[in-house]
Design goal:
mainly beta; 10-stranded mixed β-sheet
Length: 150
């Protein structure tokens, strides 16, 4: 009985390993950073939109997001939303976002996000948006964000 289980166990292990190796295939990785979950809100041409994503740095590899751009926007700024002491929500541009070693930084509504100003085309649900991210150490990484309702 044990002899029959060994090949089956090896097959299960091989399939699991292959699945683990391909799990990040939709997320760009530079060997130091992984970008995942990129999405953007729908917006009309000429308007301002927003994009979100998750940046993960492996252990021992701190980096920082310095800037972003898109061929579909006149300007892309890194912003952070925050609540003031009087309860008003606001946002302001930031020069850089530190990505600590072994950690993830999530860009999500109500926190860090990419402001897409002067859209040169509409962002329609189901479409894609190309975003160029520039990091201090990893350099330039291009991601495709899915346009969807938030």
């Amino acid at each position: 009985m044990r002899a029959r289980l060994a090949p089956a166990a090896a097959l299960v292990a091989a399939v699991a390993l292959a699945a683990a190796c391909s799990a990040g295939s939709g997320s760009p990785s530079t060997g130091t950073l992984t970008i995942g979950g990129a999405w953007a809100r729908p917006a009309a041409m000429g308007q301002t939109g927003a994009a979100y994503l998750v940046i993960t740095a492996p252990a021992g590899a701190t980096d920082a997001l310095l800037s972003a751009s898109s061929p579909d926007a006149a300007l892309v700024e890194i912003h952070q939303s925050s609540m003031s002491s009087d309860g008003m929500m606001g946002m302001s541009p930031v020069d850089r976002v530190e990505i600590p070693a072994g950690s993830s930084v999530t860009f999500a509504p109500g926190g860090y996000h990419l402001m897409l100003m002067g859209l040169t085309r509409p962002l329609d649900v189901g479409g894609k948006l190309e975003i160029h991210l520039v990091f201090e150490k990893a350099g330039s990484i291009v991601v495709q964000a899915e346009v969807r309702q938030g």
